[in-house]
Design a protein that fits this description.
Blueprint (H helix, E strand, L loop, with lengths): L2 H13 L3 H4 L18 H12 L19 H5 L1 E3 L13 E5 L10 E6 L2 E5 L6 E3 L20 E6 L8 E7 L3 E4 L9 E3 L1 E3 L11 E8 L8 E8 L3 E10 L4 E11 L6 E8 L1 E3 L14 E2 L3 E5 L5 E5 L7 E8 L3 E5 L20 E6 L5 E8 L10 E7 L9 E10 L11 E8 L7 E8 L9 E6 L3 E10 L4 E9 L5 E10 L2 E2 L3 E7 L2
Parallel strand pairs: 3-11, 19-33
Antiparallel strand pairs: 1-5, 2-6, 3-4, 6-7, 7-8, 8-9, 9-15, 10-15, 11-12, 12-13, 13-14, 14-25, 15-24, 16-17, 18-19, 18-21, 20-23, 21-22, 22-25, 23-24, 26-27, 27-30, 28-31, 29-30, 31-32, 31-33
């Protein structure tokens, strides 16, 4: 029995204790047995608290037989059999259990919950079809023991009523991805980030157990509980997943540090940015842009709206935006037409944005952005998360509640002009300078031009001007940046009216190549 199964069994036994034996004074008039409480979030939190009180034990499975030494194509050739779907017959949701193999070698326990009762699902290789083209010698089932699952996938009729599309997948460490109607898989979310971008190196927590609740016939959401474990912390998670035009994860988190933590990243998002119109010249590629996200969007506790455009840098870049009780942040993909990418296979214009909306007060901290140098599009190199200002202390419990939304557009409809595109190139009149073009949405400006306010943390801003482009629906801000010996600078611009900002604040980081 695994640690998760043992903990679950012990909790089940505790919940099923009979009342009369615990209360002798009631013996003369036996009371009805108390019904066990349905399995829920606090049960997982109790497991996480118990794990955190013990030394961390890393779990790894020995992959043998047909699951050993798999190539990428071989792993893709293992497919879950639809006739083994635990929710077979449902018109609203389907469930795939995912095999171990390739990079997925850490065993994950999976249990189904039906009407509050936990039913563990033992790993069974007979639940998979093996592509004969990838496994020409067949499969020796006798050599395959209990290596554990690697995760699961949820399906629902997202785009057509007669097709069960993938809507979310949980697989690998604490990573999970989701899509909304009309989008394709792109950026990922994580349960927790630890030490991302630090000199000490990153720690990757693992979802080691999942409890997947079977939806009722009238349910439009899937409830998932998860147990996270790592060297520094254990945690309980609850995800109530509702697919649609916006796929929403109503999320609860309880963390139990094993040691004091100053490097925890709450509600992390991970994406890919290689190049775009602001840094196109450094890449020899036929496409105008390649990225899953083009900016970090923020709504501060003071209701200031910020847009930090992503960039490709030669060195690791860490940006931290101080805030108190943030209202939202996320990685967005704003360029939404095919011509922005011209990639008929990747279809980057269909990648979703993701938005984190805290549902309680998170206090002081920073929205942190990590930009890691890459030479291609095959590695995620962008990470954002909330980092609390206070240390998470060993032995305490820390709760965070938030709504995570995957959608084409970030769910913020405030009447303010947003950045449409950022472009950059060498300044014509100054070989050491840089020209920036920032296009804002024109629709919310009146007949009077706004007043641009520009700043640079180092160097200085040169000539600037505004230009209306009515046919394109854009208000263009152009300016020169002069480094004057600086090696790094944060640039910002906002368009103001008589009563305050008319646009979100554009932010970019310039680094000397």
């Amino acid at each position: 029995m695994t640690a998760v199964s043992a903990l679950s069994a012990s909790l089940g036994a505790a919940l099923a204790q009979e009342g009369p034996e615990a209360q002798p004074e009631a013996a003369a008039a036996p009371a009805e047995e108390a019904a066990p409480q349905p399995f829920g979030f606090e049960d997982v939190a109790a497991m996480a608290r118990e794990l955190a009180a013990k030394p961390y034990e890393y779990r790894d499975a020995e992959l043998v037989g047909s699951f050993a030494n798999l190539t990428y194509d071989q792993y893709r050739g293992i497919r879950f059999r639809r006739d083994r779907d635990p929710w077979a017959g449902s018109r609203d949701f389907a469930l795939d259990l995912l095999p171990p193999g390739a990079i997925f070698h850490e065993p994950v326990d999976i249990a189904l919950v039906e009407e509050g009762v936990v039913i563990p699902v033992r790993f069974d290789p007979h639940m998979f079809d093996f592509d004969p083209a990838q496994f020409p010698d067949g499969v020796d089932y006798e050599t395959l023991g209990d290596m554990g699952w690697s995760g699961f996938r949820i399906r629902a009729p997202l785009n057509r009523p007669d097709v069960m599309d993938e809507i979310a997948v949980f697989q690998g460490a604490s990573y999970f991805r989701a899509v909304s109607r009309g989008t394709l898989y792109g950026l990922s979310a994580r349960g927790l980030a630890i030490g991302t971008g630090s000199a000490e190196g990153e720690e990757f927590p693992l979802f080691r157990g999942f409890w997947i609740h079977k939806p009722g016939s009238q349910d439009r959401s899937v409830l998932v509980h998860a147990l996270l474990d790592s060297r520094s912390v254990s945690g309980a998670f609850e995800f109530r997943i509702t697919p649609g035009a916006e796929t929403v994860f109503d999320t609860r988190v309880a963390l139990f540090p094993r040691q004091d933590m100053r490097n925890a990243g709450i509600a992390p998002l991970t994406s890919m940015y290689w190049f775009g119109p602001a840094d196109r010249s450094r890449v020899d590629d036929y496409r105008p842009a390649v990225h899953d996200s083009d900016g970090l969007q923020m709504l501060t506790g003071g209701e200031q709206r910020l847009w930090r455009v992503l960039s490709g840098h030669r060195t690791l870049q860490v940006s931290a935006f101080m805030d108190n009780d943030p209202l939202g942040f996320g990685l967005a993909q704003r360029a939404r037409d095919f011509e922005s990418y011209k990639d008929a296979e990747a279809r980057y214009e269909k990648r979703p944005s993701a938005w984190i909306a805290p549902q309680d007060n998170w206090g002081k901290g920073t929205v942190t952005l990590i930009e890691i140098p890459v030479e291609n599009e095959f590695n995620d190199n962008i990470v954002s998360f909330w980092q609390p200002a206070d240390t998470l202390r060993k032995g305490n419990r820390y709760d965070f509640n938030y709504i995570l939304t995957f959608a084409a557009e970030v769910p913020d409809s405030a009447p303010i002009s947003r950045v449409v595109e950022t472009m950059s190139g060498k300044a014509i009149n100054n070989p050491n300078g840089r020209t920036y073009i920032v296009d804002f949405d024109l629709g919310l400006f009146g007949s009077d031009d706004p007043v641009p306010q520009l700043r640079a943390s180092a160097g200085r801003i040169g000539h600037s001007y505004l230009l209306r482009l009515p046919e394109q629906g854009r208000m263009r801000l152009a300016f020169e940046y002069l480094p004057e010996g600086a090696k790094l600078a944060d640039l910002s611009a906002v368009l103001n009216g008589p009563e305050g900002p008319l646009s979100e604040t554009w932010i970019a980081r310039w680094t000397r190549e």
